[in-house]
From TrEMBL:
Residues 38-339 form the Aminotransferase class V domain. InterPro entries: Aminotrans_V_dom (IPR000192), PyrdxlP-dep_Trfase (IPR015424), PyrdxlP-dep_Trfase_major (IPR015421), PyrdxlP-dep_Trfase_small (IPR015422), SP_NH2Trfase/AEP_transaminase (IPR024169). It comes from Haloprofundus marisrubri. SUPFAM superfamilies: PLP-dependent transferases. It holds the Pfam family Aminotran_5. Its cofactor is pyridoxal 5'-phosphate. Residues 1-26 are annotated as: Disordered. One of its GO terms (biological process) is glycine biosynthetic process, by transamination of glyoxylate. One of its GO terms (molecular function) is alanine-glyoxylate transaminase activity. Belongs to the class-V pyridoxal-phosphate-dependent aminotransferase family. This is Alanine--glyoxylate aminotransferase. Keywords: Aminotransferase, Pyridoxal phosphate, Transferase.
Length: 395
């Protein structure tokens, strides 16, 4: 047998996280993760579970009883939503306007559903008229849409109009709020969304591991009346009901420290106030947008559906996105990301989320990006960018 490996003490670099996630984590959240571990059925932890559920209801803007953190990353809450709601023989309508609509499609097909698509180009939102036409043609049972498309920087407007269309056809609505929850206005109950899922590492500024999910009674009734078991035992909400419902009976060992972290992150949301938090993201991201445009760069999304939490910026002529990203990481310990799918190589994805959405980070990002582009010989005006951002922040 080989000798024990000689591994140094963990010393990750100190990055400024301005990519599509994760975002910078608040020190209070990190401290919460270092507090003593208790059992996942300990009476004190059950109290914490109750508090997390109440805080999630506040953040989702819902009274749904079925509001829980799924043990896993945002993709786990996504699969819990789709894998439980979609039964074999169901038809799900999904969008084509971004990478995560494609993931919805894959998950629905794995759940045994038939998938039909509503078309929209990458970089544009769904048009309600096209959604109406797709419903008239296909009569789907479930409609999924991405509220904040991380791959394109597009915010879906007109959500109540989309849910009205779906419900007029007796369909269920599933919303992907991974890049909007806690940073961009989303109102689950008022907008009549049946199911919404999210991730903690974006606008909530929490390490991944316990991911928000909410279902209204109508959706949960469908889940509990399924004729076939879901294909995932671990994410079966009819079983998780025993743990997160009134009984608090054993199902699995919850990621206790991640639940601690989520609780503290959600406490920060409640202390700031959800509407005030939406306003902060809009104001700070507005400064970022003004700065990159003053620099001479273009946003990927039009102003009418610009997504404050994820700014997709077109890569200028003469620049290599990978080299810019590497330069920022190596010279400034600053993380941004390149495009996905159809926009690979065409955009920078710059997050402005949660604890990272602050004037200091925006100023640092603009100055660093200007230097990185200048190093490639791209003519940009960093001073103009900083002046425009400062003017926006002054209001």
């Amino acid at each position: 047998m080989s000798d024990a490996p000689d591994v140094d003490e963990l010393t990750p670099p100190q990055r400024t996280l301005m990519g599509p996630g994760p975002s910078d984590v608040h020190p209070r959240v990190l401290r919460a993760m270092s507090t003593p571990l208790v059992g996942h059925l300990d009476p004190s932890f059950i109290d914490i579970m109750n508090e997390v559920q109440e805080l999630l209801r506040y953040t989702f803007r819902t009274d749904n009883q079925w509001t829980i953190p799924v043990s896993g990353t945002g993709s786990a809450s996504m699969e819990a939503a789709i894998g439980n709601l979609v039964e074999p023989g169901d038809t799900m309508l999904v969008p084509t306007n971004g990478y995560f609509g494609g993931r919805m499609k894959s998950m629905a097909e794995r759940a045994g559903g038939e998938v039909v698509e509503v078309e929209a180009p990458w970089g544009e939102p769904l048009d309600p008229a096209d959604v109406q036409a797709a419903f008239d043609e296909h009569q789907p049972d479930i409609f999924g849409f991405v509220h904040a498309e991380t791959s394109t920087g597009v915010l879906q407007p007109n959500v109540p109009e989309l849910t009205d269309i779906a419900h007029s056809h007796d369909a269920y609505v599933v919303a992907d709020t991974v890049t909007s929850l806690g940073g961009v206005e989303f109102r689950a109950d008022e907008w009549d969304v049946d199911v919404a899922y999210s991730g903690p590492q974006k606008c909530l500024s929490c390490p991944p591991g316990a991911s928000p999910l909410t279902l209204n009674d109508r959706a949960m009734d469908k889940v509990l009346s399924r004729e076939e078991l879901t294909r995932s035992w671990y994410l079966d909400l009819s079983l998780l009901e025993g743990y997160w419902g009134d009984d608090r009976s054993y199902h699995h060992t919850a990621p206790i420290t991640n639940v601690y972290a989520l609780r503290e992150a959600l406490r920060l949301v409640a202390e700031e106030g959800i509407e005030e938090r939406w306003d902060r993201h809009l104001r700070v991201a507005g400064a970022l947008k003004s700065g990159v445009e003053a620099m001479g760069l273009e946003m990927n999304a039009a102003d009418d559906y610009w997504l404050p939490s994820l700014n997709a910026v077109r890569v200028p002529d003469g620049a290599d996105d990978g080299e810019v990203i590497s330069y920022l990481l190596e010279q400034y310990d600053l993380e941004i990301a390149s495009g996905l799918g159809d926009l690979d190589g065409d955009i920078f994805r710059i997050g402005c989320m949660g604890h990272s959405a602050n004037p200091k980070n925006v100023t640092y990002l603009l100055a660093s990006l200007a230097d990185a582009l200048d190093a490639q010989g791209v003519d940009v005006d960093g001073d103009e960018a900083l002046d425009a951002a400062a003017a926006q922040l002054r209001g």
